[in-house]
Design goal:
homodimer; 140 residues; 3-stranded mixed β-sheet; DNA-binding
Chain lengths: 140, 140
Amino acid sequence: MLNKFYHTAEDMIRHHGGRATAGRIGILATLLAEQQAITHREIEQRLPQSLQLDRVTLYRTLEWLVENGLIHKITSDDRVWRYNANLEPHSHQHAHFKCTGCAQVICLDNLPIEQNWPLPTGYRFQEIELTVKGLCANCC
Amino acid sequence: MLNKFYHTAEDMIRHHGGRATAGRIGILATLLAEQQAITHREIEQRLPQSLQLDRVTLYRTLEWLVENGLIHKITSDDRVWRYNANLEPHSHQHAHFKCTGCAQVICLDNLPIEQNWPLPTGYRFQEIELTVKGLCANCC
DNA sequence: GCTTGCGCCGCAACTGAGTTGCAACAATGA
DNA sequence: TCATTGTTGCAACTCAGTTGCGGCGCAAGC
């Protein structure tokens, strides 16, 4: 039932003081319904016929959602951003898994990431990005 | 003395059975002389006037050097590859540091990276990519 | 040293992700 | 309902990286 996600999405957006436009709700609901991180292309494809957005609008909306902490974006080696909804128990610092076969990207929540990396003197730690690569169950 | 790097570069290329062309030697020497990972743009700028290469040649040469294990390439969040020479003591699996101020990227060799990540059942580990972000000594 | 074949190089054109400027539109608050 | 202000769509752009192809040059063989 996608309706549930639309309702949740609208709530999340309003609680952040943003205008609850059809585009924002649809995009966030799409990401909430997804078990993996997906690209802007995949988001476009999953949006209903009744909600066809311009590419630029999609990019700007995703940017807004990232800035407001409702989703996060993931760097990959194919030069394409992937996006994933921020669920509550989601730690902000977590690792990702990318399948080298089908390019699927999922979040690995149960990885405790230490923050004490031995950096050169004078360097300051901010955050960490960790991607484990391998084959998913389907591609093995 | 850049000559030393040119000599080393030529040796490395010949030992891998490749043609020791001016382009390959120059690019590899440039990367050997560098303390950090640099982009294709930066490589272009550092090449001597006498060795101005076409962008395509640069990309193809870098690809060849990567395939032959003489350099490695690093994914970043600005969608630009960075390249670094593979020194002997360099472990193939190592982490990188990226300064969020000046975009400088260096290799962190002394990070022991474990290979036993708790992946979902049926998933197979291949490799890991780890980037620590923060501020370098100059940008602090 | 000279020739020759294969591999490397340069050029031109292309792809595809992401960005910018601007005018038109619509969600919200009064 | 109306006005304001933030959001959207369009067009054009940037920039990294890729592809096809003709031609040049490195290295092997003589």
